[in-house]
Amino acid sequence: MKLMNAHRESGSVLVVTVLVTLLLAALILSFSDETDVELSLSGFFRDNDHAYRSARSGVQAALAALHEEREKDAKENRAQLGTAVMDIQLGEERSVSVKTADESGKVNLNFLVNAGGEVDEDRVGQIKRLFRILGLGEERVDALLDWLDQDDIERMHGAEANYYKTLEQPYGCANGSFQTPAQFHLVKGFSEKDLSEVGVPKDPAHYLTIYSDGKININTASAEVLQSLSERLDVSAAEAIIDYRKAREFQNVTDLGNVPGLSSEVLSGVTAWLTVKSSAVSIEARGRYREASCTVQAVALMEEDVARPRLIHWEVK
Question: Which range is least confidently modeled, 18-27, 296-305, 306-315?
C-alpha cells in the first residue's frame, strides 16, 4: 500500500488520521473482495462495484478520522481544521482519492431569508459583497431571494415560477430553502452556461453552502469569504488573517484582536457571525478499480454536543 500524494490545505493531523484509517480499511477490503458478489456480476459491474466500495471506504475513513479529531479537540482545547486532500493506493489495481472541506468556511445561502420568511438584509449585503469580489453582478441576488422567499412577486432582476415554467426544460421555483447544492445552478443567472457566458473567473458555488450553522469559520474561510464579511475588511486584512492562522490556529474569535493591522473598527458588527470550529464537513471520495471509477459525495454535521459526525447527505456519481 503506497501513499500516492498528500496535500495539506489545513489540518495536517486530520490527513494522517484519515490515511491510517484508510490503510486499515484497505486491509478489510482485501479480505472482502472475493465474495459471491464477484461470482454473480459481469466484469463491468464487478469493477464498478469494487470502485464504489473503495469510495465508500474513503468516506467511512474520513468520518472515523473526524470523530477521532473531534475527541482530541475537546481534550486539547484546540480548534478543528477539516480540510485535506489525498490519493491512496489500496492495492495493485485499487485506489481512492479523498477530499474533506469545512462547509463553515463558506457562506450559507439559506440564511438570506430567516426562519420567519423575512429577508436578512445584513446577509444580503454579505452575498452582494462576495459576488462583487468574484466579478459577478450583485443584481443577481434578486433571483436567489425570489427562489428562497415564499411569495410569487418577482424582484427587479429576479424570477419566480412564471419564468422557470417557460424554460426549454421547465421546473418550478422552490419558494423555500435550498435542499441540495446543485439547486443553486437552477436559479436564474446561475446556470453553468450563464456563468461561463459572463466570464466569471471563479464559480461562486465554491464559496457557498447550505449545510453550515451560518457562522463563518475564520480558521478555514477563504480570502474572498473573509472580505465578504464587511466593507471594512479589505484584501490586506483578509490576507493578514490567513497569514496569522498559518502559524497558529484561532482558538477563539477574540484572537482576531492579535492579528497585526486588524482594528476593532474593521471587526465591528461581524464577530457574531464568526466561529473557530466546523459545524459541517463535506467529503468527496473517488474510488477506482481497474478502468472503473465511482465518486461518493457526503456531508456530515459536527454537532456541538455529539462527538460523532452525523451523516446527512450521500450521493453516488
Answer: 18-27
Please count the structural domains in the chain: 2
Q: What percent of the chain has pLDDT over 90?
A: 57
Q: Tell whether 11 and 95 lie within a shared domain.
A: yes
Do the beta carbons of residue 241 and residue 256 sit within 8 Å? yes
Domain carrying residue 57: 2-103+281-316
- The pTM of the full predicted model, rounded to 2 decimals, is 0.82
Cell of 9: 490545505
Which distant-in-sequence residues (6+ apart) come within 8 Å of 182 by Cβ? none
Judge contact between 218 and 226, C-beta under 8 A.
yes
Is residue 82 situated within a structural domain? yes
Using pLDDT thresholds of 50, 70 and 90, give the confidence band for residue 243.
Answer: very high
Residue 82 and residue 10 in one domain = yes
